[in-house]
Amino acid sequence: MDATQRTIQLLLKPGQHDGEGHRVAEAAQRHLGLSTGRVQSTALYTVRYPLSGEQLRDFATHCLQDPVLHDVALDEFRHGAQYKSYILVAKLPGVTDDEGISAQNALGDFLNQPLDTHTQHIFSKRLYFLEHELPESSLRRLAEDLLGNKMINRFEVGPIAQIRDYTPRPGGGAESITNTVPLVGLSDEELVKLSKDNLYALNLEEMRAVRDHYTSIAEERQAAGLPQDPTDCELEIIAQTWSEHCKHKEFSAVIKYRDADTGEEFEVDSLFKTYIKNATSEVDRQLRANGNDWLIKVFSDNAGAVRINPESLFVWKVETHNSPSAIDPYGGAITGILGNNRDPLATGIGGAKLLFNTNVLCFGNPEFSGTLLSNQLHPRRIFEGVRKGIEDGGNKSGVPTVNGAIVFDDRYAGKPLVYCGTGAVMPMQLAGLDSWEKKIDAQDRIIMAGGRVGKDGIHGATFSSIELDETSPATAVQIGSPITQKLAMDFLILATRRGLIKCSTDNGAGGLSSSIGELATISGGAVVELEKVPLKYPGLRPWEIFVSESQERFSLAVEPAKMAELLALGQEMEVELTDIGYFTSDGSLDVRFDGESVARIDMEFLHNGVPRKVLEAEWTRPTAQEPALPANLDYTDVLGRLLGNLNICSRESVIRQYDHEVKGRTIIKPLMGATGQAPQDAAVVRFNFESWEGVAVSNGILPRFGDIDAYDMSAGAFDEAVRQIVAVGGKLPNLSYGDGNFWSVNDNFCVPDSVYDPATNPDGKHKLAKLVRMCQALRDATAAYCIPLTSGKDSMKNDFKADGVKISVPPTVLYSMTAKIEDVRRTITSDFKQADDVVYLLGETYDELGGSEFYQLFGELGANVPKVRFEEAKALYTLMGQANDNGLIQSCHDLSDGGLAVALAEATFGHGFGADVELSAGLPVHIQLFSESHSRFVATVAPEDVVAFEQHFGPRATRLGVVKPDSQLTVRHGGQTVISASTAALRHEWTNGPVNRLIGFGQHEATQVS
Amino acid sequence: MNEQPKLPDLNTPPRPQLDHGGPVTDANGNLQVLGFKSVDAGHETTQPLGHSQAATPFKPQVKALILTGFGINCEEEFAAAYQLAGAEPTIVHLNQVLHGHVSIHDYDILNFPGGFSFGDDLGSGVVLANKLRYRKNAEGRTLLDDIKQFIANGKFVMGICNGFQVLVKLGLLPNLSGNVTPEVTLTHNASGRYEDRWVRLKVNPNSNSPFLKGIESMEVPVRHGEGRLIIKGEETLAEIEDRALNCLAYTDFDGSPTDVYPHNPNGADLNCAGLTDTTGQVFGLMPHPEAFLSLYNHPDWARRKRQNPGLSEEGDGLRLFRNIVEHVQSQTAALPQEASQFSS
């Protein structure tokens, strides 16, 4: 062992249950078929800080050891005599090590010394001992598949007699030099190669635009003493700013659309402008005409903002973090949720208080048993890692995860979709200024706050804008540190309320390049002094510092006069603040290192110089037909199979590992009722403890309907989110003059590569046509319901390529909706409340089994995809709001996956009630039971309210039957019993579905087990 | 940023108002309660907070100090609990106390909220407990020195979840020996998982703690991954039982203590959910009473309200806070003070 390096090992005392070791052994057997025998887990802390032997021992025994649980070994790897093999899991250089930093914090307290926690002195590792002697290849497989990820961990394995240690030594890399990249005179092929080699993710036309720009300003640059060719940093800045991720080039493109069936042709001048922004402008016009002026900030900041009341704003943002989650599911997801948290935090001046998180996840089948492609992770592993990332990201930040959804489809097996949403509340005024405004003047200082900069996450923005393949770079992976961000968040809340910050933005994709580049558009320029940026370790090139996406950082604009007070507050709250330059108004982004120019770019070219794309879309309706189903189906059996189906079954094992009620404000949680097992439609959260005002939150996502028609899929997803909010007692906006009933919606499109290429993407035109149709439906839906979009995101290259195979996600759109709830005490939950209450179906059922879960059971798609009838839906939702005002509704559950039959069953899960239901004549029984027609609900009504209820709803309500005390669900049709089941048995099927069997009960990513 | 909306953002001027989340400074400009946060999430209402009816203006004001910072995250609902119970809560950043800017002795109840202090990467509560034990202020005193004095002065300490873990790792609970060394521990749940679920607790009828006076049982959520109490040695276990320090037990639906998952969510020894010290002044528990201040926090609120429309809108958890606030009030009122003649 290194003489300056000491090791502390913590082992469980004999007789203490080694839960982690046990789970490793079990998971190795279950998932890899490896028999390890008994596994012992131990924790290692390598200390690279001068300590005497006595200090080391005292530190270990007083600070790290739990005297009830642990034995301590110093400078040895102690193990039981029966163990034959070992696996050491360490972190690669520069990977976030919160556990090591925590130990270091403890050491500083123990020694009563200020110990710089930004230089790492203590490194945490795990050391496992295995009873069986396994070959190195098996040990390595176990390590890579169960204990860590080779993108972030270093593994040492072998026989126990030869334990090799490993401690990362980050840095020691590059000198701080800046190179120029010759562009002038490069051929087209050379330009494309340059873009690909450097991961610029720019296409030929864009590369040409850059080359031509530099050619045209050659003289100017020479006069200014700048090199004629662009510097590496300049090209990186341009690549990041022009990336699909940051610039949304395809949503801004000109699209030539052709309907091959009808011959109709038209041109779309930017999907974003045409279908999203203009639609919202029209909605806002209608709202304001009716005295509803709550729409405060849309599309122009990190998150959308609406007014709750004269004192406060509600801020709402949903984003995706797909590509990183495919490579390192844990790191990708935790970075996703923490990164999304920073958006509301850094909206306007900044300092919103986070109220809740949501997440919607799309995965491949976790029971996949085929062969994986190179570097493709198993869907179960992606699921488990993402779940754990969301658990730590939310729980450790003290933000409740109030709801979500999980969608399974084999086409998500290459690239999962990880949508993270965050709602927050901000005062309308911060220190006397409008909180939502971003104002910056020349000479204001640029302050970087929070974490330090390392090589992690370099090229995240450009990397997420291209397809994944087996060579995707390790530097694109980052791991969030919730504790670092929590400190920065607490700081930001205080500093903004004291008026110390003029405005803030987060460092996400593109790092400083993106955050300063964007803020600089407000003042008209900036000077950045990169040598001042604090690094995690030496050895970063200037351009790497500028584009690194190291997490937990904010960029702040601060008036020079406020600097002293701000720095003092940062010191008190232990948040690192660094002055890294100032804003200017000279129209250029000027980046320097030790006084030398590293990049100097004209802001106009940087932000508006990207050539506009022209894309082609061609729509042909897929040939689909309704299937012939087996006769004499046993519908009780079908219902049981549906409830145990991957896309319908209970997610309780996932939900319960998220804290959904920290802050004490959650009124409708994902699972409710006396059993805690009744699934709910939308979450409801109070804003505070002083009033009963709150917000309802829902998610609409229906990718499988897109296989028949992307328009209906998008319209249906929008309606699904609206009706979930209506189900819990939310009201549509703008129903009466100045009702102040805000809605705030985020759209998130995740589609496969939709740019036509005859060789690599022959069906690109069809995919793009689907996207256009999805956007058309969005416009129609916002207009019909008068519901505005406030922010959104698009992720355009959700393909995974390896071994010559491409796995592309189905075109997917998520609508994440929030709506004001006047009084949370009047909200409605989905479960039946009392025997003898009368059960109604609200809304109409159509012959619409296309894309249904019922057809999926038989491997069929069908043709009759559910359509949204906006007028009828809006009328019904309006009636429901009135009925709830009059207290007429006791329970309400929206109809979605699995139709009426599944909704009825789920409504019994809260308390052990049953129901007696008689279906009307008319449509065939399987359509009535399983059709997924939109805009429908199952509601119950107290017997004394039946007359008023039927009068109110008229033909929109169909009486189905009554709630029974006897835990029996009986459905009849035309005198015949078609379903007869014990609700306890149905709940058992649902609870013991594949998700609860597979997920959350096995081994976590061991790097995260403390 | 490049997309400027066509929407007029500026035509809804808000009413100017003060944000009460700001700092308080003394005459010399020193920050008094840096880190103070308002109880709400940024929304300021014109309505006064609904105080307890019992808290008449004549009763002495009970002051509760609530620590935050470094990953603590349940401080706002903790403060709301005290406010609803008629006390005056103050939230301060831990460094304010550690650096001596705020003295715990100016308060009646010291509170350690839940959360993930310092990320909990070394084991829940470990780093924070370590800081309280070893980090010395300018006068060379640790915060633990002050807490010992605080308890000796007859005052109260409460820890919830991560705060309970801190008190246990510090040795303030159960502190049978009286010399504040760890005697028990809280570690990973038997399930190996973090879980958020509601449980029923039974109060040990022999507990002497004023926090639990008159309470027989309560429903509360647990939200933890390391809540399994492990007691080292039969003697310690017997003494804890004999002195009724195991003040709360997880029970099944009929109210009997149970070791069956999920009613007992973590597999704790003695099915124990909370501990007091021998004086009853120091109290800690894994579940979150501060998350059940209103009926509408309960997962079954809608059905219960349907069955009994007159059901109280208060949650079970609030009773704990009312208890301790009333106890401190009666203690203070019993002292020969001017105000005592006016109190009822």
CATH architecture designation of the domain at 6-170 in chain A? 2-Layer Sandwich
**Overall shape of chain B:** globular
Report the structural category of chain A: alpha+beta
| CATH class categorisation of the domain at 6-170 in chain A | Alpha Beta
**Highest-level CATH class of chain B:** Alpha Beta
Approximate helicity band of chain B? 10-25%
Quaternary assembly: heterodimer
Identify low-pLDDT runs of chain A: 1002-1010
Q: What's the order of the H and E elements of chain B?
A: EHEHEHHEHEEEEHEEEHH
Measured distance between first and last alpha carbons of chain B:
62 Å
Mind describing the biggest β-sheet of chain A? 7 strands, mixed
Number of helical segments with 4 or more residues of chain A: 30
From the alpha-carbon coordinates, what is the Rg of chain B to the nearest angstrom?
21 Å
- Please state roughly what percent of the residues of chain A sit in beta strands, choosing from under 5%, 5-15%, 15-25%, 25-35%, 35-45% or over 45%: 15-25%
Number of strands of chain B: 11
* CATH homology superfamily name of the domain at 6-170 in chain A: Phosphoribosylformylglycinamidine synthase subunit PurS
